[in-house]
Design a protein that fits this description.
Helix content is 45%, strand content 11%. The chain has twelve helices and five strands. A five-stranded parallel beta sheet has the order 2-3-1-4-5, with helices on both faces. Helix 1 runs parallel beside helix 10 and helix 2 crosses helix 10. The N and C termini lie far apart (55 Å).
């Protein structure tokens, strides 16, 4: 899966958006069962948590990927957070605050559907949004320059470094969708009555800013993919393949940790037969 990991400076336009793996759904079923087993053991061990970060343009398939990749994991072992426009309370705190309090506890998998990277993505395409944060040093749009966003990416790197040092396994996925495939998916939402609710005119406005978003994605991929919190660029035009690839990265990563279920303390081990007899003779 190293082919998809950002380990050096990349040009996003050189990455393919379409890859098709045969029998992807069948292979995914096997992977998600193994992920479920690993999560059970991770929970019992109680040393690690997992943070899955999903980013991508509108219609890139984040919601369905979450549903299909994690459907076999114990419902109590997965927590999903979808970050929307910051609330009034959230804006009264540092921009990372709402993400920090949503982090998974040890033993669990946390999924951020859209993430803290919105703060160097959407706010970079629409810098006026930052004014809502009431940052003392930001007095005009001129203050929201490359230096401002580079500093934020440095802060995010430090945030994720702290998480990794304290037992959170951080994996970040950019679902790399083509503009043509996004067009097809938006048209599908309009043509199918049962999908109409997913469509928003705002999707078309954001689509006109496609190149701006691609630039911002390339910047954050290059500046925030670290060994302790790597980015993976996943071709997303074929949903089944994208789900399989994400599951494969997660599975291969978790296997490296060799989670182990804890053993009974010795003082209880020697009494196991006694405990069994007590129960059987009730």
């Amino acid at each position: 899966m190293k082919n998809y990991q950002v380990t050096d400076t990349i040009n996003l336009s050189e990455f393919s958006t379409k890859e098709v793996v045969e029998k992807a759904n069948k292979k995914l079923k096997k992977n998600r069962k193994k992920i479920s087993e690993l999560q059970d053991t991770m929970y019992a061990e109680g040393k690690y948590s997992v943070l899955i970060c999903l980013q991508g343009m509108d219609t890139s398939g984040k919601d369905s990927l979450i549903r299909e990749v994690f459907k076999d994991v114990n419902a109590q072992g997965v927590v999903v957070h979808s970050f929307k426009v910051p609330t009034e309370l959230e804006l009264k705190h540092n921009y990372l605050w709402r993400h920090y309090i949503a982090l998974p506890e040890k033993g669990k998998i946390g999924i951020f559907n859209r993430t803290h990277y919105e703060n160097v993505l959407v706010t970079r395409v629409h810098p006026e949004y930052v004014f809502g944060e009431n940052i003392p040093s930001v007095k005009s749009i001129d203050d929201l320059n490359d230096t401002f966003y580079n500093n934020r990416m440095g802060e995010i790197n430090n945030f994720e470094k702290q998480l990794a040092e304290n037992g959170t396994i951080v994996l970040k996925f950019f679902l790399n969708l083509s503009k043509e495939e996004q067009k097809n998916r938006l048209l599908r939402r309009l043509r199918l009555k049962e999908k109409n609710w997913k469509f928003s005119p705002g999707d078309l406005k954001e689509r006109k800013l496609w190149d701006n978003y691609q630039f911002c994605y390339q910047e954050l991929l290059n500046k925030t993919s670290k060994e302790n919190a790597p980015w993976f660029v996943i071709p997303a035009d074929d949903k089944s393949t994208a789900r399989l690839l994400v599951s494969q990265v997660i599975l291969e990563t978790l296997k490296q940790y060799n989670f182990k279920e804890p053993e009974l303390p010795e003082k209880y081990k020697v009494e196991v037969e006694n405990y069994k007899n007590q129960l059987e003779n009730e």
